[in-house]
C-alpha cells in the first residue's frame, strides 16, 4: 500500500476543492479548511505532512515554528507571490516552501485589460443605466486606447503578456523594470526610467512583486508627478499603493481612473461574501464612493486554465517535497 501524503488546505474555497480533487492522485489526502493560516489556526495542521496556502495566509516566524513543531515539512503555496511567507526563516529552519510561479500570466494580463477598457468606456455605469432603461450617453465619454502611452511597471511574465496585448491596441508602451526582459521587443515599446514612465504615461499598470523596495511605490510625490487624469491599474499586490495618497489623488482629480484587483488591507476582506456585514474599513468604503474607481476582489488569476494549472503544479510540488526533491524552480 502507498504511503499517503496528508495535506491541509487552508483558506479553501469550493473551487479549490473542485480543481485539486479533480487532479488528485490516490496517494494524496487533501483536507479542506475554511480557516486562514495564522498563529491561532496553525494547530489545525496537526498530523499533516504539508499545508497548502493562498495569498492571505500568514506564514511568519511564529507559524513556521508551530508547523515544524507538529511535524509539517512543506508549505505549498497555490499562488505565485510569496510576500506572506518569511522565506529566510523557513529556509533557516528547514521548512520546504514551494509555489506556482507561472500558472497563467495571460489570465491576470487579460483581467488588467478588462479593467482598463471597463474604466475607459465606463461599462460599470453603462450596464446599470441600460438595465434601468436609461440610454443617455452623457457621462460615458471614453477615449481611444490607440496611440495612448501605457506605462508597465514590472515586465515579468504578466507585464510582458500585458505588453503583447497592448501592442494589438496600437498603444505606445513604456516599461520600467530593474531587470529588463531583453527579448521583449515590440514596435512602440521602450524601457525608460521609473520617473519618466510616471510622468509620461496616460495609463500606469503595476506588475512587480511586493517587497521592501516596492512597498508604497505609488505614493503622494509620485502621484503628484503623474499626468493629470492618469489611469492607475493595480492587479499585483495592494501594498504597492499608498491607498490614502491615491484617494487624495482622486479627490484632486490628478487620478482620473483607478482600477484595482488587489487592496492594501484585503487580507480581512476579500474571498468571502460580506454582503450582509457592515464593512468597517473606511478607506475601502471611501474608494467605493468614487464613480471612476472599479475594484474587483483579487480575481485576476481566476480562470479555468489557471486553476487547472495551479492544481497540477501544487500536486507535483507535494510529490517533490515528499521525495525531498526541491531542486526545482517551483521551490523557494
Ligand atoms: P514575475 O516574477 O514574472 O515578474 C515580476 C517582475 O517585476 C520581474 O521582471 C522583476 O524584475 C520586476 N521587478 C522587481 N522589482 C521591481 C521594481 N522595484 N520595479 C519594477 N519592476 C520590478 O511575476 P509575475 O508572474 O509577472 O507576477 C507579477 C505580480 O502579479 C506578482 O508578484 C503577484 O504579486 C501578482 N499576481 C497577481 C495575481 C492576481 O490574481 N491579481 C495573480 C498572480 C500574480
Descriptive terms for the model:
alpha/beta, binds nicotinamide-adenine-dinucleotide, 332 residues, seven-stranded parallel beta sheet, five-stranded parallel beta sheet, Rossmann fold, 11 helices, globular, 12 strands
Sum this structure up briefly.
The chain has 332 residues and is α/β, with parallel strands linked by helices. 34% of the residues lie in helices and 16% in strands. It is built from 11 helices and 12 strands.
How many whole angstroms does the radius of gyration measure?
21 Å
Ions, cofactors and other ligands present here are: nicotinamide-adenine-dinucleotide
What is the molecular shape? globular
Give the CATH level 1 class of the largest domain. Alpha Beta
CATH topology of the largest domain: Rossmann fold
Which segments are poorly predicted (pLDDT under 50) over 5 or more consecutive residues? none
Number of distinct helices: 11
Explain how this protein is built:
This protein has helices spanning 14-22, 61-69, 87-93, 105-121, 123-131, 157-169, 194-200, 220-225, 243-251, 282-289, 304-322; strands at residues 5-9, 28-32, 50-53, 74-77, 96-98, 149-153, 172-176, 189-191, 203-206, 230-234, 255-260, 293-295. With 332 residues, the chain is α/β, with parallel strands linked by helices. The protein folds into two domains: 5-103 and 304-323, Rossmann fold, CATH 3.40.50.720; 105-295, 3-Layer(aba) Sandwich (Rossmann fold), CATH 3.40.50. The strands form two sheets. It has a seven-stranded parallel β-sheet with strand order 8-7-6-9-10-11-12, sandwiched between helices. Strands 2-1-3-4-5 form a five-stranded parallel β-sheet, sandwiched between helices. α9 (243-251) links the parallel β10 (230-234) and β11. The protein is globular, with a radius of gyration of 21 Å. The mean pLDDT is 95. Residues 80-81, 105, 108, 153-159, 176-179, 207-210, 213-214, 235-237, 261-262, 298, 300-301 line the site of nicotinamide-adenine-dinucleotide (NAD). The site of nicotinamide-adenine-dinucleotide has 29 residues, from α4 and α6.
Amino acid at each position: 500500500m502507498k504511503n499517503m501524503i496528508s495535506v491541509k488546505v487552508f483558506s479553501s474555497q469550493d473551487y479549490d476543492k473542485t480543481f485539486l480533487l479533480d487532479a488528485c492522485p490516490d496517494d494524496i489526502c487533501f483536507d479542506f479548511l475554511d480557516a486562514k493560516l495564522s498563529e491561532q489556526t496553525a494547530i489545525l495542521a496537526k498530523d499533516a505532512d504539508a499545508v497548502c496556502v493562498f495569498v492571505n495566509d500568514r506564514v511568519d516566524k511564529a507559524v513556521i515554528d508551530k508547523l515544524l513543531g507538529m511535524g509539517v515539512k512543506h508549505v505549498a503555496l497555490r499562488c505565485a507571490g510569496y510576500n506572506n511567507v518569511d522565506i529566510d526563516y523557513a529556509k533557516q529552519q528547514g521548512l520546504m516552501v514551494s509555489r506556482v510561479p507561472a500558472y497563467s500570466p495571460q489570465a491576470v494580463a487579460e483581467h488588467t485589460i478588462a479593467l482598463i477598457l471597463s474604466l475607459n468606456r465606463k461599462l460599470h455605469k453603462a450596464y446599470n443605466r441600460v438595465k434601468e432603461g436609461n440610454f443617455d450617453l452623457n457621462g460615458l465619454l471614453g477615449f481611444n486606447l490607440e496611440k495612448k502611452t501605457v506605462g508597465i511597471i514590472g515586465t515579468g511574465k504578466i507585464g510582458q503578456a500585458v505588453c503583447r496585448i497592448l501592442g494589438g491596441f496600437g498603444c505606445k508602451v513604456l516599461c520600467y523594470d530593474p531587470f529588463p526582459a531583453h527579448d521583449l521587443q515590440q514596435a512602440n515599446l521602450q524601457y525608460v526610467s521609473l520617473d519618466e514612465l510616471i510622468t509620461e504615461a496616460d495609463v500606469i499598470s503595476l506588475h512587480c512583486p511586493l517587497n521592501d523596495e516596492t512597498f508604497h511605490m505609488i505614493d503622494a510625490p509620485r502621484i503628484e508627478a503623474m499626468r493629470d487624469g492618469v489611469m492607475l491599474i493595480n492587479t499585483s499586490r495592494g501594498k504597492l499603493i499608498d491607498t490614502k495618497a491615491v484617494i487624495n489623488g482622486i479627490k484632486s482629480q490628478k487620478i482620473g481612473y483607478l482600477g484595482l484587483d488587489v487592496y492594501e488591507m484585503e487580507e480581512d476582506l476579500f474571498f468571502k461574501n460580506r454582503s450582509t456585514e457592515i464593512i468597517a474599513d473606511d478607506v475601502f468604503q471611501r474608494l467605493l464612493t468614487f464613480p471612476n474607481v472599479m475594484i474587483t476582489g483579487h480575481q485576476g488569476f481566476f480562470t479555468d486554465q489557471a486553476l487547472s494549472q495551479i492544481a497540477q503544479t501544487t500536486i507535483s510540488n507535494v510529490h517533490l517535497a515528499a521525495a525531498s526533491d526541491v531542486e526545482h524552480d517551483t521551490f523557494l
